[in-house]
Amino acid sequence: MDLILGYLGLGLMLGLAGIGSCYGTTIAGTAAEGALKKDPSKSSGYMVLSALPATQGLYGFVAFLMTMGKLADPANGPLMFGIGIGVGITCLFSAIRQGKVCAAGIQGLSQGHDVQTNTMIYAALPEFYAILALVGALMV
To answer: pLDDT tens digits for the chain (140 residues)?
Structure first.
């Protein structure tokens, strides 16, 4: 049973982080598509902001790879389940919220405001917690 819990935790870590990145990039990408109709000259800025929420999926993947070896001992199963839930949920919500911040920045850019740098700074705030989750997982 402990081994099953461990694998479930690893799967949730990878899956939830990936789902969050999927949602976050979709939120920002949808805003970018609308903004392209208004001002296509800023497409590179839209693309950078749209890609930011993808990093949480990468953090989940890195945590998955780095902690997978801990299941050599099945007694670590409950621990891996807890780590997986923690990292997965943190990355899920972080990516979604970051996508919303980036979407607002994309909208501002399309309206002619110079908000690229500020949006990237604001977008780094929810990402910080995904990084903390990754670091926490690697420290265990």
So the answer is: 999 999 999 999 999 999 999 999 999 999 999 999 998 999 999 999 999 999 999 999 999 999 998 888 989 999 999 999 999 999 999 999 999 999 999 999 999 999 999 999 999 999 999 999 999 999 98
Q: For the chain, how long is the longest CA-to-CA vector?
A: 57
Contacts of 118 (CB under 8 A, 6+ apart): 105
Distance in angstroms (rounded) separating the CA atoms of residues 50 and 103: 8
**CA neighbours closer than 13 Å in the CB half-sphere of residue 137:** 34
Q: Give the span between the Cα atoms of 34 and 91, in whole angstroms.
A: 26
Domains of the chain from N-terminus onward: 2-139 (1.20.120.610)
Determine the residue type at 103. Answer: A
Sign of CA dihedral 135, 137, 138, 140: positive
Locate 93 and state its tokens. Answer: 């919500």
Q: What is the pTM of this model?
A: 0.93
